[in-house]
């Protein structure tokens, strides 16, 4: 039985704990407690989760960000939380020996190796959603992004309606991981989002060779 089958609809605790960190750093402790209270998640501030959490709680927290702060400031907090998540993964989940090897590889090869690991562990951040990745057959093609990441049935977009792509947390996490392990000039852009009515959330990753 796969991990995803064991834990349907659950997401790693970073999607909550790193938002708390980013909020406290940007707005202070009082505002953080108020927002978590409005989301009905104060218990996660009193006792930060260390195990997988219900994706509905993560969705509620990220929705509260937008409702209380507005789309622009919520996006800034989500991106900061995404970067914090990447730093946590680099410090605690990706072995240092593997990181050293990836940083020595040519970017196209490092990207493929990293994507295999991300795909294998996608159940930890997409919950009931579906993750996939596509890699350009020839990285020298200027018209095509080297890497595209796809999330279908994104649990953070359920019930969300936005005029602009809204998955800043995911985008920032992917961007920082690739900057450290693949190429420092990596930039991630979400070019389609289910919150905007698109069929999937799609992220393009580019860097200068």
Q: Quick one: biggest sheet? A: 4 strands, antiparallel
Instruction: State the fourth-level CATH superfamily.
Output: H-NOX domain
- N-to-C order of helices and strands: HEHHHEHHHHHEEHEE
CATH 2nd-level architecture: Alpha-Beta Complex
Which spans have pLDDT < 50 for at least 5 consecutive residues? Answer: 1-6
Overall geometric form? globular
Arithmetic mean of pLDDT: 92
Radius of gyration: 17 Å
* Amino- and carboxy-terminal Cα gap: 41 Å
Task: Look at the structure and give the CATH class.
Answer: Alpha Beta
Strand segment count: 6
For the record, the count of structural domains works out to: 1
Q: How are the strands of the biggest sheet laid out side by side? A: 3-4-6-5
Number of helices: 10
Structure overview:
The chain is α+β, with helices and mostly antiparallel strands and 209 residues long. The chain has one domain: H-NOX domain, CATH 3.90.1520.10. 53% of the residues lie in helices and 13% in strands. It has ten helices and six strands, in the order αβαααβαααααββαββ. The strands form two sheets. Strands 3-4-6-5 form a four-stranded antiparallel beta sheet, with helices on one face. Strands 1-2 form a two-stranded antiparallel ribbon. A hairpin with an 8-residue loop joins strand 5 and strand 6. Helix 2 crosses helix 3, helix 2 crosses helix 6 and helix 6 packs parallel to helix 10. It starts with a helix and ends with a strand.
Question: Layout of helices and strands, plus pairs?
Answer:
Blueprint: H1 3-6, E1 10-11, H2 14-27, H3 29-38, H4 42-46, E2 53-54, H5 55-69, H6 71-92, H7 96-104, H8 107-120, H9 123-126, E3 130-135, E4 147-152, H10 168-181, E5 187-192, E6 201-206
